[in-house]
Amino acid sequence: NAGVTQTPKFQVLKTGQSMTLQCAQDMNHEYMSWYRQDPGMGLRLIHYSVGAGITDQGEVPNGYNVSRSTTEDFPLRLLSAAPSQTSVYFCASSPPGRTQETQYFGPGTRLLVL
Amino acid sequence: SQQGEEDPQALSIQEGENATMNCSYKTSINNLQWYRQNSGRGLVHLILIRSNEREKHSGRLRVTLDTSKKSSSLLITASRAADTASYFCATITGANSKLTFGKGITLSVRP
């Protein structure tokens, strides 16, 4: 299994541009989530999904959209990037029945918004 | 909002020494988890302790939980240079499945 994969690894955007951060997992996990990590702030939850077709907001959802059309994929969309969205983004997933016990993280996407 | 707060923020020790990291939280929890993050990488789950447990071991890791003090400690025994990383505590509260992370502890193990 490849686990949780994220693309791209690095991205530079200009203010106002849009982009999609890709996240995929091949472990048949129902629960998937997106976090952002900023210096001195730890990880903060952006959006999460408990299964295909179901998404919900986390702690910092503004400026981000998600969808979950398949179990495997959970893309994160920035519709109009802002410098405040410069961060490292992590996708994570959890096995069925163990959502509260462990999360498997992808390697992250470093985003710089100029 | 931050649920877990780790202490200290940074820790530097010599290889072979033990490393103790603490986490305090504000509200009642279902469980508390510790994760490790190597530089430039994603987080890796280390160990979970449930609210009705007081101590758990996994290899060189020992975690304790004191629900009366709302605190947990992670002990890494006989540390190695490869243990150099950031360590995060994370809690699950209530019926939801959302992990809330602390800001992390930077551990440096000198060879």
Please, could you describe this protein's structure?
The complex is a heterodimer of chains A (114) and B (111). Chain A is 0% helix and 51% strand. By secondary structure, chain A is mostly beta strands. In chain A, strands 2, 4, 5, 6, 9, 10 and 11 form a 7-stranded mixed sheet that branches. A 4-stranded antiparallel sheet of chain A has the order 1-3-8-7, with no helix packed on it. The relative contact order of chain A is 0.33. Chain B has 111 residues and is mainly β. Chain B has strands spanning 4-7, 10-14, 19-25, 31-37, 43-50, 55-58, 61-66, 71-76, 85-92, 99-101, 105-110. In chain B, the strands form 2 sheets. In chain B, strands 2, 4, 5, 9, 10 and 11 form a 6-stranded mixed sheet that branches. Chain B has a 5-stranded antiparallel sheet with strand order 1-3-8-7-6, with no helix packed on it. In chain B, a hairpin with a 2-residue loop joins strand 6 (55-58) and strand 7 (61-66). Classes of the chains: A mainly beta (114), B mainly beta (111). The interface between A and B is medium-sized, with 27 and 22 residues.
How would you sum up the major sheet of chain B?
6 strands, mixed
Number of helices of chain A: 0
Which descriptor suits the 3D outline of chain B? globular
Rg of chain A, Cα atoms, Å: 13 Å
The ordered string of helix (H) and strand (E) elements of chain A is EEEEEEEEEEE
Strand content of chain B: over 45%
Residue-averaged pLDDT of chain B, rounded? 92
Residue share in helix of chain B: under 10%
Query: Largest protein interface?
Result: A-B, 27 and 22 residues
Tell the overall outline of chain A: globular
Unreliable spans of chain B:
none
Concise account of the structure shown:
The complex is a heterodimer of chains A (114) and B (111). By secondary structure, chain A is mainly β. Helices cover 0% and strands 51% of the residues of chain A.
